[in-house]
Design goal:
Length: 164
């Protein structure tokens, strides 16, 4: 379990390009959201989009899906976690550098948007992250963890025709 300050932890139930349940006729569904979470779990790193001093910013993070939420591990020394705590962020990942050979979903990307807060995962959850980098920008890696409560999920797949 997590240790953090209390927050609203509403549940996301949809996907696609709209809010939690999407408008009538939206292509998103609970199945799409579950597939997006499954795809996210198949890669280790992604990018978090946030605002720092009213400017957009991207940061790389290691992630796990724990209890339906996206838990991120970042380097404390960069201070990004302080800018994000209590804010709404977007987190995305893809397999663009290692696409599957053939199949329906050769390439994919997923994005989750929602509030994020600093957390202190249980030791078994921290162990699941594995070993972190030795250094970040020449500084000893000091992990900090954020929990993203996805309210919106997007999934995009690119399928390629196998014929020439």
């Amino acid at each position: 379990m997590f240790s953090s300050r209390p927050s609203d932890t509403g549940t996301a139930t949809g996907s696609g390009s709209s809010g939690p349940s999407g408008p009538a006729g939206s292509p998103g569904s609970v199945t799409d959201r579950l597939r997006a979470v499954e795809l996210l779990g198949s890669v280790r790193y992604g990018r978090m989009a946030m605002s720092m001093r009213a400017l957009p910013f991207l940061a790389v993070a290691r992630h796990l899906v724990i209890e339906g939420r996206v838990v991120l591990r970042m380097h404390r020394g960069l201070g990004f976690h302080e800018s994000c705590d209590g804010s709404v962020v977007a987190y995305g990942a893809d397999n663009f550098s290692t696409p599957a050979s053939g199949g329906v979903e050769d390439l994919w990307s997923v994005q989750f948007t929602g509030p994020v807060e600093i957390v202190h995962p249980a030791p078994d959850h921290r162990e699941r992250f594995g070993t972190g980098p030795a250094e970040v920008n020449g500084e000893h890696f000091d992990p900090v963890y954020l929990r993203l409560d996805p309210r919106i999920a997007h999934m995009h797949t690119l399928a390629f025709d196998a014929s020439p």
